[in-house]
Amino acid sequence: MFRRLLVQSRRRHGSSVAVLGAAGGIGQPLSLLIKQSPLVSELSLYDVVNTPGVAADLSHCNTPGKVRATVGEGKAVEALQGADVVVIPAGVPRKPGMTRDDLFNTNAKIVATLAEACGTACPDACFLVISNPVNSTVPIFAETLKKMGVYDKKRLFGVTTLDVVRAQTFVAENQGTDVATTKVDVIGGHAGTTILPLLSQIPGAKFSDDDVKALTRRVQFGGDEVVQAKDGAGSATLSMAYAGAHFTFRLLDALNGAPNVTECTFVENDLTRAPFFSTPVTLGKHGVDTIHPFGTLSAFEQDNFDAMLPDLLAQAEKGIAFVKNH
């Protein structure tokens, strides 16, 4: 996938990309992948510790993008000067037995602080939120920018690409198809049962009822699979970096005028009662171009959809309330 994206993008104009949380478990491999792209003329790395070492290491890679580092609490505004795209994996990772909701109290404050820095330094940039729990942190980011008077719903994205990556991998294994050409839309949110792979809409695929249940649950709780396998040593960092880089490249292509760039992403829309909902979105020169409906659901998917909406609403409200109360 990356080889194809990089080759297609060689004639594009370079952009300035900032990674907030660049020294972390997701931030380091994500920054490495982004450094490879000819789409990127400058890679600005920010974290509260260890950023200079990461930047020095990456600067030795023989790709055109220049790397600069900013380190220390309260220094994000400096790192964000001139950024066209800001990718935000900053926050505390999941540990065994920890749900995404358990991360809320710590990561909510981190995301709100970084959103303020973005609103100050680069309000016209596109913001890609990876920090969990995405169902709450994206509303936090939006509400913070609204309070500053600089919110543009076309430029704020919750990165749910990892759910799509997992779905395509697991479906290809189940169906014996080429993973490179297997396409699965995943809608909803980015936490447990709010993640809904649309298995009924995959052309040519045939699943038993047991397959549908098992695959859906595996996509929904794939993160737990990694947390348990790492046995206390971390969460899904490498696959998340891969997915985050993929979405970054796709957005950069669209910003540079590439046609027909469509990805599932968690954006503000009115498709459901939830203020933010992940659905196929065509990206364009200004961020969101077209929000697509997710089509007809199977009975199994409809049941999951009906059950997820109250959770999505509650998780969004939790983020909105955090900003109002802080």
TrEMBL record:
Keywords: NAD, Oxidoreductase, Tricarboxylic acid cycle
Annotated NAD(+) binding sites: G21, A22, A23, G24, G25, I26, G27, D47, N107, I130, S131, N132, M240
Reaction it catalyzes: (S)-malate + NAD(+) = oxaloacetate + NADH + H(+)
Span of domain Lactate/malate dehydrogenase N-terminal: 17-158
The Lactate/malate dehydrogenase C-terminal domain, residue ranges: 160-323
Subunit (UniProt): Homodimer.
Protein name: Malate dehydrogenase
Native organism: Chrysophaeum taylorii
Organismal lineage: Eukaryota, Sar, Stramenopiles, Ochrophyta, Pelagophyceae
